[in-house]
Amino acid sequence: MKTLPWQWPLMILLAGMLGAAIPGSALAQLSSLDEERLQILSDPDALKKKLEKDKSRAPFEFLRSQVAPFDVLPFMKPYQWSTVFLDVRANYQDYEGSLQFFPVALPGMPQEVIYAREARLVKEQSSRLGMQTMLPQFPREKELNLELLQPGAIRYNELWQVPVRLLPPHQMLVVVLSKESANQYATWNRLPSCVPAVSDREDPIALELQRYYRMVLPEEADKPFLSPHPLTWAPISHVIWDGLPPDSLPVSHQQAMLDWLHWGGQLVLIGGAGPTYSIFRESFLGNYLPAEPTGENALLGEAELKPLAEAYPPSVLQAIPLEQDATNPRVNPEPAPFLGGPYKQWVPIQPPKGRPIFVTGLRPHPGASTIPLGAGSPHLLAVEARVGRGRITMLTINPTDPSLVSWPGLDTLIRRVVLRRPEEAASAAALSAFGMRPPAAQLEGPDLSWYRITSRDAGAEADAMRVRANLAARQIPMPNGRYGAPSAFVQPANQGSPPTAAEETALGRIGVAEWRDTTALPQLCRDTLEKASGITVPSSQFVLKVILAYILALVPLNWLICGLLLNRREWAWIVVPLLALGFAIGVERVAAYDMGYDSACDEIDLLEVQGAYPRAHLSRFAALYTTGRAKYAIAYPNEPTAVALPFNNERSIGGEDVTTAVWQSYPVPALQNFSVQPRSLAMFRGEQMLGLSGPIVLEEDQARRTVVNRSELELRDAVLVDFPGGGQRRETYLGTIAAGASVELGEKQPGPVPDRVEGHDGPDPAPLLAELRRNWEDRPENSGELRLVAWNPQPIGGQTFEPALDRHRGMTAVLVHLRYGNPPSPEGPRYNVRAASEAKAVTSEALSRTSKESSSPGWVQPASADRARRRVQGRTVGR
């Protein structure tokens, strides 16, 4: 029989005395470490059990992976940046190393990139590590390999797999921020406004890939899972804010939301009986609110809600049945037919007796737009205003009110007012005597989101549609790369399963803000950089002449000299390698270009500013040159939002060796191990959000308008471009606007703009400036835009090169969106097909009546008819 050492009784007695002396509430407040120590003192076998448990644990544990803004489902969108969070723990000792993904191939380039970050782990403590990644090709095995390793190590310390799921390019995210459970918004996923009218409702998996919007509902209402990096918010089109205190968001999330909002995000604040708008007055959103609460609230019954019910009749499409959810088995779902017109007869809103609908009283701020509750109603449905390119909409009602949830017209209200989603266009052949038939085409990403980044989106949709039309004309299936790139799925040999037809189709859709090197502005910058470098690819005539001369010297001349003149035929074989070497040296000397330095960088920057907002989006396109083989590290100290990757120069050759670069997102963002071949150009591109010393604004005082430059930049050759609508464009040359200076617009008249820039040593800014003045999307949300286009003779600082460069030159194009028009009305023809039909009918009737009446002698068009005609034409402007 074993006996305990004499120390154990004393330890047990001490533990008992300690437990008796400490109150129960204090015991409940002990940390996990203190509880573990107390258990060891009170239980002799606890220490032994703990040691045995520690031996069974792995040195490192991978606890969880998440992709913002999803709590659970790891959706990632190709060609867009995402923030991946990883929960990791070191069990035995502190650890310092690196966390990195396996190399990711870059399409069309002999290059691949590793996404990495520093990993510092404290023993037995879970660490959350975030890093930015961009997948141009989606892995078919639907997982990414992740390794933990130390610098200089031969092999990794630990290897894990991170699951990922495909988010189609066109599909947009709607994030819900609620002070209570967000489950009340889960039904929105099944509304017809979130899915195409023509969709495969028999196949839930295909339907999930075809849908327009996906609701993102946080698991913990007061802890929404958002990314602190603003450039990873591109997949989000809308944020629904339902009473969550603004202080619940960290400062980094608040800043990211403001950046997203100014570049096209749509923020909808929910009113009604639940939340109060007073929580926003002193918050980071306070200066951007379009209205303020008045306290003059109202309770409306069925009679008062009749205008609202008439304004938003229900759609003919039915909501997706609950049993057709992609995560649940199908139970013989009935397909929803598309019959009759696009809308049914309006249905009254019938609140239960004693439970009227609460309407919040709002007072619009100057310049804000109002949406009435309905025709003839004295109440407002919403007040909204532009914030940069985006909008903030304040609703006076809560769409999750039970009386509205049971109302069939809620889907129409959500589509037009909340989402501001356009109607699906139907072709003329789709019309019949029975009314409107299913739309001819589904909406694309640019129809579903207002978010845009000019360096990525300028001309992108037009290029994609042109490629699609050419392929359709030749009866070639649309590739999922859309630009002739390889398949958007990549798969190692003998791994994963082939993509389904639905996945391949979804990858052929058009997105927004995609990081592609083949769109208009990147191609323009690449051509300008090549021209500025002085390095040109030999012409086809030069290559043909060299080949002919080599063949002539190799066969006839070699045989003539060695065989006939020297009578040494065997020497001809010895001459062949010498002749090849001589030609190689000669061609290299003829094609060589003396740059006058050993290493250099040319850079083109595009600085995009949203009016009065003091932050800007910066895009960099750069070309590195060196006389010898070198590897560079391009770092962005003090720039936590910076991202950078190799840039496709479209000069790759089949069979060329693949090089591997590393993008490190933390602690200092840097593109490392970037290879530059001798006497050739290696290009990279980067983006970041940049703080300015002050905004560049348009100040309006009655009829006087002034452009004020409060930034630190000198704006050369500034041109004011006005897009009043209808495809019109007016340009006014303003000249140079110094830092801190201003220009009054009344003194300037529209006139010719210089098409050349003289005296600049570096990349020519003229082609890029011309494209920025010309490129414009003809959409209702862009109507009334006023922009300023200028340039500065220096690139933006903030990046470092290692090893140092002998020469670094460049220029910065500045694009300032001084103003946008008011948010397009939800009753416009782009969002209400009835408005378009009524406008066409009124126009046709007016023209017919005018034609008949004008044929009678002495007829004069009445002023009221002319006003009606102008009013109808004004309603039909836009898409």
Key words describing this protein structure:
6 domains, disordered C terminus, Immunoglobulin-like, Rossmann fold, 879 residues, alpha+beta, globular, 8-stranded mixed β-sheet, 40 strands, 19 helices
Give the class from helix and strand content and strand pairing: alpha+beta
CATH first level of the largest domain: Alpha Beta
- Gyration radius, to the nearest Å? 33 Å
N-to-C CA distance: 92 Å
CATH superfamily caption of the largest domain? Class I glutamine amidotransferase (GATase) domain
Largest sheet: 9 strands, mixed
- Got a strand count? 40
CATH architecture term of the largest domain: 3-Layer(aba) Sandwich
Provide a count of the helices: 19
State the shape: globular
| Mean pLDDT reading | 82
CATH topology of the largest domain: the name is: Rossmann fold
Give helix % range: 10-25%
Q: Strand content of the residues, in percent?
A: 25-35%
Uncertain stretches: 18-28, 327-340, 427-436, 478-496, 846-879
How many domains would you count in the coordinates?
6
Q: What report would you give on this structure?
A:
Strands 4, 5, 6, 9, 10, 28, 30, 31 and 39 form a nine-stranded mixed beta sheet that branches. An eight-stranded mixed beta sheet has the order 29-32-27-26-40-38-35-36, with helices on one face. Helix 15 runs antiparallel to helix 16 (571-591) and helix 18 (833-854) packs antiparallel against helix 19 (863-875). With 879 residues, the protein is of the alpha+beta class. Strand 9 (143-149) and strand 10 (158-163) form a beta hairpin. The chain has six domains: 7-56, no CATH class; 60-166, Immunoglobulin-like, CATH 2.60.40.10; 172-436, Rossmann fold, CATH 3.40.50; 522-532 and 598-819, no CATH class; 540-591, no CATH class; 833-875. The chain starts with 6 loop residues before the first helix and ends with a helix. It has 19 helices and 40 strands.
